[in-house]
Structure formats: structure tokens, C-alpha cells
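Hi V.,

You were right to ask for the full record rather than a summary. Here it is.
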Amino acid sequence: MAGSIVARQYGSIAVTLNTSGTKGTDMRARHFLLALALPAISVPALPCNLKLAFEHWPPYVYRDAQARPTGLDFELVAAILKEARCTLVVEKELPAARRQMLFQQGELDLMLAASETKDRQAYARFSVAYRHESVGLFTMSAKLAKYRHLDTFAAIQQAHVPLLAPRVGWYGRDYARAMPGLEASGSLNTFGSFRQGIRMLDAERAELILGDSAALRYEAKRQGLAIAALPFVVLRAPVHLMLNASSTSQAELDDINAAIARLEKRGTLPAIRARYGEH
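Predicted structure:
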């Protein structure tokens, strides 16, 4: 069946929906090409094209009622790449582990909200920070008094308190050091999405859950569950755009860093973060 190209304008962002079918490709997969606001009359070739796999990760990335990508991180990266005169190609959603594998192989160019680590420096380059993340430990609100004294991962392991944690991602050096012991003691279970993690907490698969604080609160509210944070703050750190080292250039990274600096000074990025309650 022949496909079609559907062009729409959403404010300053031109979105092209590619619905063409190709052999061996899931017909439901859609590629969103965001030509980030170049003048309509004379459109020069863009200096960079960055492929990003969609990730349902509210409130950072999700689809609105019209199925358009939105969210805190999506708005931030759209503004940054528009300023850097780049094109963002949003690919279909992938499981976290496969998304990470394809990025390392150079099949994807960009990942959001990345922590800069020594291991990742072997295959990636990092922008300057564009926001901060907060990682916390949560329990059901009714159980907070029982667990609020736990202030280290060693204390959690010694007390044999079951813990849920994301299967993929960086959650600080303390957690990285504690993870082998938690796994060996049988205290650790993992989840693939925050939706799954909150459901597992509700089903009492564990007493505590680790993860991005805003994402956990958002998902618990969506599922109608009352959760509360332990005083123990696992991580508060800057996050970066992570570009694949083999498929992108230092010049592209320099343009992105310069764009972030201009947008911070202009107040554009602070205004986006403020609308989502982030500072």
C-alpha cells in the first residue's frame, strides 16, 4: 500500500508525519520529523539531523490528546535544537534496553536526560546540563513512618527490605555500589517502566521503589496511589543531552552547547522548566 506524507504546523514547529509503508516494517510505526522552525521562504540545508527513539516517560516525554510528542524534556530539546538549527527525527518507541543498545551501535544519535559517566564517555559526547534530576526512594504513604529511618542502601540491605528499581539507567554511585549486594541478598527487583514499577509496588512486590522523583509521583497520581518520599535523597544532579560519538560531530555539540547558553540567558529554558514545576 502506498504511504502518504501529512504536513502540519504546530506553532513554530513544523511536524511532518511519515505514514509510508515499507516491506518488513510495522505499519503502525510513525516517524515524526520536526523541522525546527526555519523561515518558510528560504530553507537552507540543516547542519545536523539527530535521531531519537520516542520514550513514554511522563512528565518528561509523552503524547498529548492529538498524539503529538510533548513533555518537559521534549519541549526543552525542541527549543534547544531549533536554536541550534538542527532537525530532530523521532523514531518509534523502543524498550529501554534495546534503545540503549541501538544508541551504542550508532543507530540512534540522541538520548535525553543522561548522566555523564566514564563508561558512557567511550561511545558518547555530552552537552552542558539543561536541567537537574532528583532520584528518590518512595513507599506507600501509609508505610512512611515504618521506613523513614532508612537513610542508606546498606541499611535497606541489612533490614532485608524489598526494593524496586529501574532495570536500565544511572542512579548515582551509592546505588551502583550497593546494587550487587542488594541483588545477592534477594532484596532487589527491577521494572521496565514507571507504570510497571508503581503497579508492582501496589501489588506489594516490594516495600520501596527507587526512581526519578517527578516520574514516580506523576505515575502514582495517574494510578490513584498515594506514595511518599523517604528523607534519603539518592541523587540530585545535572542531566545532559547525550549524543552518539560516532554519528555526530564535535561541531554539532558545540552548536548545541551554544544554543543552551543563549536560551538560558534569554530565559527560554527557565520558563519551560517553571511551567512543569522544575527550577
